[in-house]
C-alpha cells in the first residue's frame, strides 16, 4: 500500500485545505494529508513531501525523506534552512506561472512607459500637461534573469514592440533579445536600459546586487521593476537614487520584510509604487497537475525531477 504524502507548510499559512484539495484532485491515486495526520509508522517511511515554506523542524520528523516538491518557484528560504541536509529541493516550474509573470511584466512596463505615475501625480494637482511620448521601439527594457519567468517576459515585451536585453549567469539565446552574461557584462547591459526588470533568484551572489554602483550604471531617466525578491535591491541605494531623481520610479512587488511594515519609507514615497507580492501568484490547479506528474513519475521510475543546485543557490 502507498504511503500518504504530507503537505507541509508554515503553521500560519491560510490555504492548506485548498492546496490539499487541489493536490488530491490532481492525484486521486495518492492520499495527500497535513503532516499531523501522518502516524509514526507513516512518518518513518515517507520519502517525499509537498511543501510551501515549511518549518525545517517539521521536515526533520521524516527520517527517510529524500526530496521535497515546493509549490513555489522561489525556494531561497528552503535552500538556507536545509543547508545542513542533502535533501533534494524541487521548485515549481509552471508555464502558467511564467505566463502570469510575463503579463505582469508587460502591464507594469506599460505603466512606466506611458508615464502613469506622472499623470496620477498631475491629476492630484489638477494639472493638465502632456508628457513627451516615446514609441516602444525607442525604449529598452532590460531583464535581469532569463530563466523560466525572464524568458517568457522577454518574449512578451518583444511582441509589444520594445527593444529587449537580458542578463543571465550563463549566456542564453532568445530571439530578438540582446543577451548579456556574467558580472563583467552587467554594467554594459544596464547602461542602455530605460526600464530595468528584476527576475533573478535570491542567492548569495544576487543579494544586494543592485547597489549604488550598479544603479549608477543606469541612464538618468531609468525606472526599476522588482518582481523577484526584496534583498536583491539595496533599499538605501534605491531610496537615494529616487530622491536624487537618478531613478525616475520604482515598482516594487517584493521587499526585505513582508508584509511591508507600515512605517516603511516606500509607502509614502511619490516615486514608488508598492504592490503586495502579487505579480505572479501560483495557480493551484496547474501547479498541482505538475506536482502530480512529477510524483507519479517518481513512484513509477524512482527518478527525482531536476532539483536546486545547492552550490549555485537556485
Ligand atoms: P530560473 O528559471 O531559475 O531563472 C533564474 C535566472 O536568473 C536564470 O536566467 C539565471 O541564469 C539567472 N541568474 C541566477 N543567478 C545569476 C547571477 N548570479 N548572475 C546572473 N544571472 C543569474 O528562475 P525563475 O523561475 O525564472 O524565477 C526567478 C525568481 O522569480 C524566483 O527565484 C522567485 O524569487 C521570483 N518569483 C517571484 C514571484 C512574485 O510573485 N513576485 C513569483 C514567482 C517567482 P542562467 O540562465 O545562466 O541559469
Describe the structure.
The chain has about 325 residues and is of the alpha/beta class. It folds into two domains: about 5-95 and about 280-300, NAD(P)-binding Rossmann-like Domain (Rossmann fold); about 95-275, Rossmann fold (3-Layer(aba) Sandwich), CATH 3.40.50. The protein is built from twelve helices and twelve strands. Strands 8-7-6-9-10-11-12 form a seven-stranded parallel beta sheet. Strand 6 (about 140-145), helix 7 (about 150-160) and strand 7 form a beta-alpha-beta unit. The longest helix has 19 residues, at about 95-115. It is elongated and about 70 Å long. It starts with a strand and ends in a 13-residue tail after the last helix. The mean pLDDT is about 95. NADP nicotinamide-adenine-dinucleotide phosphate (NAP) binds next to helix 7 and strand 7.
Task: Give structural attributes.
Rossmann fold, 2 domains, 12 strands, binds NADP nicotinamide-adenine-dinucleotide phosphate, seven-stranded parallel β-sheet, alpha/beta, 12 helices, 314 residues
Set down the secondary structure blueprint.
Elements: E1 5-9, H1 16-26, E2 32-34, H2 40-45, E3 48-52, H3 56-59, E4 67-70, H4 76-81, E5 88-90, H5 95-113, H6 116-124, E6 140-144, H7 148-159, E7 163-168, E8 177-181, H8 182-191, E9 195-198, H9 212-216, E10 223-226, H10 235-243, E11 250-252, H11 265-268, E12 272-274, H12 284-301
Parallel strand pairs: 1-2, 1-3, 3-4, 4-5, 6-7, 6-9, 7-8, 9-10, 10-11, 11-12
The chain binds NADP nicotinamide-adenine-dinucleotide phosphate.
The site of NADP nicotinamide-adenine-dinucleotide phosphate has 29 residues, from helix 7 and strand 7.
